[in-house]
Amino acid sequence: MTNCCLETNCTRCCIKTNMVLTTRDIQTIEKAGYEARIFVSERNGWLQLKNSKGRCVFHNGTICTIYDHRPKGCVLYPVVYDKDSGCAFLDSECPQILCFPLSKTKEQQINILVHHLEKERRERMQKKNLTKR
Ligand code: SF4
Ligand code: SF4
């Protein structure tokens, strides 16, 4: 979310979000004063932002209420990652993609983020499988 988002009153990427979270994202938001149970849901090993009234629990209808503490995936959006090709690209769902040039740095950042999220999920699933035995 940037000036482009605010100027156009766009909230699209915060509607029915399924943004995945790293452990660090969760810790950062917790430090900002929110309990994980109010904003984290787990689906198939992924930790995701919860929605309320059809939008991210942190969106008040106008702005992101944790803007300075928002998850890395929100910071990088509309830069997203295509698993099949292993490439970063700009999500065409964002109506303002021209405001967000895709730099090498952002490509690297989304790559690192995706690999980190996958690693954490793998570890979480392994732990679950161990406790099932
Ligand atoms: S954390 Fe903020 S930017 Fe991210 S989806 Fe929620 S409201 Fe939108
Ligand atoms: S969809 Fe694009 S323009 Fe709309 S709020 Fe998200 S980043 Fe901003």
Q: H/E element string?
A: HHHEEEEHEEH
- SS-based structural class? alpha+beta
What's the rounded overall pLDDT mean?
94
Number of helices: 5
Q: What is the percentage of strand-forming residues?
A: 15-25%
Explain the overall architecture.
- The strands form three sheets. A two-stranded antiparallel sheet has the order 1-2. A two-stranded antiparallel sheet has the order 3-4.
- It has one domain.
- The chain is of the alpha+beta class.
- The protein contains five helices and six strands, in the order αααββββαββα.
- The N and C termini lie far apart (44 Å).
- It has helices at residues 3-7, 23-31, 36-39, 72-76, 104-132; strands spanning 40-43, 46-49, 51-52, 55-56, 79-82, 87-90.
- Helix content is 39%, strand content 15%.
- One iron/sulfur cluster (SF4) binds at residues 1, 4-5, 10-13, 77-78, 94-96.
What is the secondary structure topology, with strand pairs?
Blueprint: H1 3-7, H2 23-31, H3 36-39, E1 40-43, E2 46-49, E3 51-52, E4 55-56, H4 72-76, E5 79-82, E6 87-90, H5 104-132
Antiparallel strand pairs: 1-2, 3-4, 5-6
The structure holds iron/sulfur cluster (2 copies).
One iron/sulfur cluster binds next to loops.
Put the structure in a nutshell.
With 133 residues, the chain is α+β, with helices and mostly antiparallel strands. 39% of the residues lie in helices and 15% in strands.
List keywords for this structure.
133 residues, 5 helices, 39% helix, binds iron/sulfur cluster
